[in-house]
Design brief:
The structure is a single chain. This protein is mainly alpha-helical. The protein contains eleven helices and no strands. The chain is 73% helix and 0% strand. The radius of gyration is 21 Å and the shape is globular.
């Protein structure tokens, strides 16, 4: 018999407490101001009558700039994310302690990214602020209405974010940018481990309900920034540069996490759980074909561009 959300929250509480202790021991304290080259800063136009931003001032290539803006705008919706997970997990006990700790760490990422991009004039600050206003006014609402669905989603999403940050830093060609994004990516990896381990415990408590949640998330997954204006075009630029694409999503996000949960080795599923696993397998096979086709076409485009 499927456990209720309240029962799952209660049964997982000791796991949350253990994972929280592990997280606090592994997390390294760091300070955003130490990652910002403040000496490069100067006044902008406006109140201080400085120099207006021009694209010629940035050293970062377009694809990396697009990815940086998407990553930062995604971080900006933190108030909505906090509301979603606090509403689901609660604000009491180990769950509540984790919710607030996670929120504080994510807020640090947005602060550091915005300071770096503004001080180094990497992106247009006016366009960035306008995009922030539009994106935050939309807010964010999880498409998964169960605790298991949300746990499965963040297990994949935190890993996807880590990879996107690391690859953005690499493509930026900017040492300071890469250093900052590597630091942020290390935090995101710890967040992924927390959620991934929680869902692994959920598989032991209710394997069928958990399998159905994982299948739903994998087959409908979208990054939380998908509501950003022009996201489809931005995502294509990011994919064409190899920062984050379907190939990476399958090979470095979906499959490693699914292997950690041993989803295809489980022997304790009922008919519904088995049906969900079969749907997952079919979807992964289709995704493999689509990912291979995308990479092939991208290589062909690059070959034509090289002449």
């Amino acid at each position: 018999m499927a456990m209720s959300q309240t029962e799952l929250l209660h049964e997982l509480e000791p796991v949350v407490a253990g994972e929280l202790d592990r997280h606090l021991k592994m997390a390294k304290e760091w300070f955003p101001h130490e990652y910002i080259p403040w000496s490069q800063g100067r006044d902008f136009d406006g109140i201080y009558q400085g120099e207006a931003w021009q694209e010629s001032q940035t050293k970062i290539p377009e694809a990396a700039r697009v990815s940086l803006v998407v990553n930062l705008l995604t971080e900006d919706n933190l108030p909505s994310y906090h509301h979603e997970i606090a509403s689901t997990f609660g604000r009491d006990g180990a769950w509540g302690t984790w919710v607030h700790r996670w929120t504080a760490e994510e807020d640090k990422h947005g602060t550091a990214l915005r300071d770096y991009l503004t001080v180094t004039r990497a992106v247009d600050p006016v366009a960035l602020e306008r995009a922030r206003m539009v994106h935050m006014e939309q807010g964010y609402q999880s498409q998964y209405d169960t605790m298991l669905g949300q746990l499965a989603y963040v297990s994949f999403q935190e890993l996807a974010t880590r990879i996107a940050h690391r690859n953005t830093g690499r493509v930026s060609g900017d040492e300071g940018c890469e250093r900052l994004l590597s630091r942020i990516a290390a935090d995101e990896n710890l967040h992924m481990l927390f959620y991934r381990n929680l869902l692994k415990a959920a598989f032991e408590l209710d394997p069928n309900q958990t399998m159905k949640a994982v299948t739903e998330v994998v087959t409908t997954f979208q990054m939380p920034g998908n509501g950003i204006q022009g996201f489809a075009r931005k995502a294509m630029i990011i994919a064409n540069e190899g920062i984050y694409d379907l190939r990476l999503h399958l090979d470095e996000v979906l499959m490693p996490v699914l292997r950690q949960w041993a989803v295809f080795e489980k022997t304790d599923l009922d008919a519904e759980g088995e049906q969900a696993r079969e749907r997952l397998a079919v979807f992964l096979d289709k995704t493999e074909v689509t990912a291979a086709r995308f990479v092939e076409r991208r290589e062909e485009r690059r070959a034509r561009a090289m002449g």
